[in-house]
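Today's session is about reading a structure prediction critically. Students often jump straight to the picture, but the first step is always the sequence itself: look for stretches that repeat, for charged clusters, for runs of hydrophobic residues. Only then move on to the predicted structure, which in these notes is written as discrete structure tokens rather than atom positions. Here is the chain we will use throughout the hour.
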Amino acid sequence: MLYAPTSGGVARYLREKRAWLARHTSMRHTLIVPALQDGVGPHGEITIRTRPLVRSPYRWPYAASRWLREIRACQPDLIEAGDPGPLGWMALHAARTLDVPLISFCHAEVVRMVEQRFGSFWALWVRQYARVFYRRCDIVVAPSRYMKDRLEEWGVARVAVRPLGVDAATFHPGARKDDLRVELGLSPRSRLLVYAGRFAPEKNLDVLLDAFRRLGPRYHLIVAGAGDSLPAQSNVTFVPFVQSSRDLARLLASADALVHAGDQETFGLILLEAMACGRAVIAPAAGAAPEVIGPDAGVLVRPRDARALADGVCAFYDLDGDALGRNARRRVEQLYTWDAAMHGLLAVYREALSSTPASVPNYAAS
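Below is the predicted structure for this chain, in token form.
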């Protein structure tokens, strides 16, 4: 359900995995996703008609028999489920009837997401639900140590950490264009930052916009994405969701830094993409952000605090931003290439397919 035309990191992970496997292996990779109509998507996905969700880019699956029929027709050796919702249970049922392993990739921190939107009562119920589902999977993959710890708090024991990767050739400092301020009608001396992602409550965009109100007209923020409507603001430029990776790389590389207010990222692929572009990141010291950014590639601030975020932006400009950006790029090259990510993920697949399962090694970046 996390795959949609305006979804970000999950969709890019799946497309990048598909392309990497095609280039480097003889494996057959089939991607079955919700869509407006049955058919074949632009990236070769098998699309199945689903209902739209209110105020969401995602769609709700129905007609379980249709999904099960499509999965079984593929005759997979292994199934990976991307979310614990209805499609996760359909994948689990298909895996059991086909007698193949089910890997579940935990992309979202659903408990905190529900708690923020609906309160602690429903969060407790979702925690129990998530535990029931994930404990039935052969292996659960977490993209960060943060998410592994959360899964273990829920009572899920068999978890492997596999960080995502980034296309370091597309997301590269060379994508920078020096005319972005001119395009926006800004002074050459203006301080320009960017946010890219969904406009959703868990991204804490109210905190982000409040921080820029405090910062004033010398600072300008580009907000790129789709989702809930946001109020206009004089030092904020809103741009539509950026579909093209090259266009997104240009935007990230051409700003001074990426700024993010989300405090429950299970990985935060956009952080990595900005770092690959040689840009520092200003983000909350929460979720997976500290382990992705590391000690010298950005500025970490107190979560859900607009004043702290504004102070963090000011602190960034008191530092050597170019040096932070070089550190960020170096960290990506050392730890977060797609080659490294995919070799780690293939080790999980091999383990799941083994007839004598052993403990799954972790490959978390440090």
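Discussion point for the tutorial: The CA atoms of residues 191 and 303 lie 22 Å apart.
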